Amino acid sequence: MLQIRKSNARGHFNHGWLDTYHTFSFSEYYDPAHMGFRSLRVMNEDRVAPGQGFGMHGHRDMEIITYVLEGELEHADSMGNGEVLRAGEFQRMTAGSGIQHSEFNPSAASEVHLYQIWLVPSAKGLTPSYDQRRFDDSISTNQFGLVASGDAADEVLTIQQDAKLYLAKLDAGKQKSHSFAGSRYGWLQVLRGEVEVAGTPLTAGDGVAFSDEAALQVNAIANAELLLFDLA
Q: What is the pTM of this model?
């Protein structure tokens, strides 16, 4: 079964400094029909204005993944990390027993465009940790390349949940498939471009949930960038 979540159906708020879309209920946006999918709890598409950002604030018991599409994001946290996340880079935080962090657009002229993703962890009270990584384009060019996993043996970003996250950058006309083992579930998020899944065209901001499906096939109508979650 496929359930499509169109971009224009998401919660939307423009605060001036922050233009944000919420796939699932978050902050002021509440929709009981869209509270998350499996362990996937938050899927926010954010555009942060130059010189603006999220001040120091706290989280706990959540796996937080950030992916920057355009611009830069300056990070600081209570663990002593201070990094700049650039376009094409992933950030992973295990909030665990509690962290404080800030995320700021250091540019004076350009907005930063990013996705902020939360997954519910497999256990509470975990030791907080941070990682940041850029993956070579070769892993995701016209294929689903693994970038985060609950299996530390995968040697990618480690998330504390039975989940795998893939990135794909497909050229127009390319077709790629992904198989779901056993009774697993999937969520596909279109970041850029246009694809077709099961005869349905999807564009930037659209998402689709996969339940009781052995596999998915994606046809790129135009150049496209995608995130795929393989979930327990």
A: 0.96
User: What residue spans of the chain are helical by DSSP H?
Assistant: none
Distances (CA, A) of 198 to 116, 174, 213, 214, 231: 27, 15, 11, 13, 20
Of 91, 50, 95, 41, which is closest to residue 231 (Cα–Cα)? 41
**pLDDT over 90 at 20, yes or no:** yes
- Taking alpha carbons only, the member of 182, 181, 185, 201 closest to residue 193 is 201
Residue identified by tokens 């555009």 is 47
Task: Give the helix/strand (H/E) hosting 43.
Answer: strand 40-48
Cβ(68)–Cβ(88) below 8 Å: yes
The whole-angstrom separation of Cα 159 and Cα 119 is 9
Looking at residue 63, what DSSP letter applies? Answer: E
Contact 70, 112 (CB under 8 A): yes
Distance CA 140, CA 132 (A): 17
Give the pLDDT score at 178. Answer: 97
Residue in this structure with the two tokens 């050229």, named with its chain if needed: 171
